User: Fold these one by one.
Assistant:
Number 1:
Amino acid sequence: MSNDFTMQLKLIHGFSNKTRYNILHVLKNGEQNVTDLLEKVGGSQSNISQHLACLRDCGLIEKRMEGKYYYYSIATPKIIQLMDVLDETILDFEWTGESIECKHHMV
């Protein structure tokens, strides 16, 4: 096993954007198409589609076609487990206001 962490960082990249993380939270409740995601996440269709492409490239979601629509779902239950661990872990921190954002790395 390589120690360059490329695959781990690719996975983390999928989690590293608010819109993508919001999409993942919506998909935790089951398969959705782009129209459903637009209603629940907001934004434009092209923006959502770009984030879906990134999530697929990072291995976090899958898509299937039914009729003329694509449906998206979380690729493996382990992704939901990772999200649950992240949600539980933040409860251990005492972040307030300014300390939430990493001014050096986050946009």
Note: The chain is about 50% helix and 15% strand.
Number 2:
Amino acid sequence: MNISQIISYWGYPDEEYNIITEDGYILGLYRIPHGRTNKNNSARRLVVYLQHGLLTSASNWISNLPNNSLGFILADTGYDVWMGNSRGNTWSRKHTSLETNSQEFWAFSFYEVAKYDLSASIDFIVKQTGQKEIFHVGHSQGTTIAFIAFSTIPKIAEKIKIFFALAPIFSIEHTKCPLIKMANKFKSVIKAFSDNKDFLPKTSLNSFVGSKFCSLHSFDKICLNILFMIFGSDPGNLNMSRLDVYFSHNPAGTSVQNMVHWSQLLYSTHMKSFDWGSPHLNLVHFNQTTSPLYSIANMNVPTATWNGESDLLADPADFKTLQSEITNLIYRKTISYYNHIDFLFGLDVYHQVFHEIINIIQDNL
């Protein structure tokens, strides 16, 4: 199923929009305007925007049963739920002038996602709903682009009432994620085989492996171990009957340049722009010979964070550094046994995270 079909399957209303960024990318934006039982409420609903992470898509917010998927839970609680998709993933692979198979289309990393995609999505939602401020939830790279956008684009930051950061990432100096380390070690090989374009896109193989392979009891442990190898282990906190859904929709793709950008941060203590590989090219792009650093010291958006001590990608040591830089931290919680995807799919994620998000929203109306 695509995202609209998943929403409709569970009996929720769905709306789909194609929005265009300032640099011409066409993004799939999805909306659940209300829940299954509160559709007759005429009061204007508060907006909550959900932004996915690296190599995933908006489907992550609705991949579990309705009582354990944040998108559906928020809609049933009475909120107007919007879910974005970053350029290059399954639902955002079009451009107004560039061909999808061109190198020009894939010449982006998470900086462009922050500067153009997130800005376009938030601007569109605010205009469509007439609300001056919205609540923002990000996961993984979805938090990275928010930190960059909210600290560098004041007109976007002022539209965010509270930023909820799940498994937040702003540096990966200590990351133990094999995928990022592989991208760094074999980046020349990856560039050659992919023609420096897309990285791990969703294909028919995803659907086959997910629906035919991971759904078999004899192979589900293999699929589970693949997830844990990349994101960290948390045995017993994943609904094994949903593995076919997770693998059918993930990975959802990004650009090789984005993965290279992440790999450049492996040995850096600071978040910085994409290094184009030479002082001359950096001078062309940034008007300086080195890639500029990002700082969130001036970001005033009220921020709540949840992180896991068993997270291979968002390492606790890196989170500690990030936490010290957030100037308006209104809430933080560390969950000892959580890995990177527990914040999306964990069996107890409603009790550990989701209900706290709702409580914080209710306390700040």
Note: The first strand starts at residue 15 and ends at 20.
